[in-house]
Each structure stands twice: as C-alpha cells, then as structure tokens.
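S1.2 Input.
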Amino acid sequence: MSFVAITATINRLKFDAVEKRLQELNVPGVSVSETKGYGDYKNFYEKNWMGPFARIQMYVKQQECDAVVEAILETAYSGTDSDGVVAVSPVTGLYKISEKCEIK
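S1.3 Output.
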C-alpha cells in the first residue's frame, strides 16, 4: 500500500474547523504544532513579519490524499494571503514502532 505525507500550514484561527473536518474523514492520526512564519502576506508596518500558524502533519493512503487535501483547502480558506499552504510528499516506508513492522 502506498502512503503520502500531508503537511498543512494554516491560519491558526481556522485550526478547530480543519481538525473537525479531518475527524469526519476518519484521518487516522495527526500531529499539530504552533509555528510562526510569513509567505505571500507580510505586514510591513510591524517589526516582526512572522504571523501565527498551525502546522498539521499526517500520513494517509494515496487513494485518500485528494479528499483530505480538498477538505483542508475548503475548510482553511478565508480568501486572504495568510490562509497558508498544503504540501504532499511521497512516503517510501511507514512503520509502526509499537509493533516493529511496516504499515501496509
């Protein structure tokens, strides 16, 4: 079975809605961290350009990828430059530590 890694950096204010939507899709697990950064949007009037974001990381089956990405895009969207990004990367192996085996 083929897996992908999805990393979404989203506006922190949208996190609760995105988390709820991922639960509705039965995403088996996510890791979340608070992060700061800037991209297209920069507040040149502030000394610190960095804005607060939430980074969500997960591994999903390849065939579930499009639905998960679409859910994040739809739920995190506000139409502003600070909405964030979603990245998808191939995974060459995924292992469950507690069982010392590859997840298939």
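S1.4 Remarks. The chain has one domain: 3-102.
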